[in-house]
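In full, the data.
>
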Amino acid sequence: MLERRRPYARRHERSSAVPVQRSAAAGLGQPAAARTRRWRPAAARPARGWGQPQYSGPPPSASYDATQAIGYGWKAFRAHAGPLLVVSLLAILVPGAIQGIGTATSGAEGFLTFTADSSGVEFDFNPGVLVFNVIGSIVGLMLSAVAIRVAFDVVDGREVSVGNAFNRIDFVQVILAAILVGVLVTIGLMLCILPGIVVLFMTFMTNYFIVGKGQDAITAIKSSFSLVSANFGALLLLALLVFCVMLLGVLACLVGVFVAYPIVTVAAAFTFRYLHGEPIRPLQ
């Protein structure tokens, strides 16, 4: 009787071996650590969610390259020259025009002037110039935040529109952050100048945290300090490249500034997303 059961046992073994082989081929019988997922480039991934394309962040092992950020800014300018030029013209010309009107109407070179002669020193205070300077500075802060918002739209793959950028910025926090940073920089400049320069460098990502992360002014200043201190060398190189690009814009009969400004703004937005490991739209 034992011999009669052997064929059945063999058939049972053969039939039960098939699903085991299939499951092993499908990877179901393997532990989770042994499974591998095929990585696809960001541009090849399908769009998901609210009609916005989804892009992948930088690989964890990829190191940041400041020259790559400047190159991305140039590609962004070529792809979206219209809105980037508009926001550049607004951010540069409008504040200067407001302050120029104050100077022209008052006939003074500044809100506080002084003359020295043999009788002594005479000070002259011009409140009209001061008012126009303050208004121009506030408008300049607001328009620079709009430029940052447009730069983030380019990097994030959203619709690039200057008009739509105004209603997605907390301008109160932008102005408050500028006041706090201005006080810190002033104190630093009074302490042998160098501390003020350091503070200015450590806080240059403040508005990117306000616009890109929705943080309040104080939190954004702290976050900027943390981000810059953690990537000091890379961001110092970026700052030097930004200075060189803006200098080239000035040397190009000043007209080049309107091209250099959006390039460096997008480069900083690219850097912000890259250092946070967040998705970035690829540009050709």
Remarks:
- The longest strand covers residues 112-117.
- Residues 1-51 have pLDDT under 50 and may be disordered.
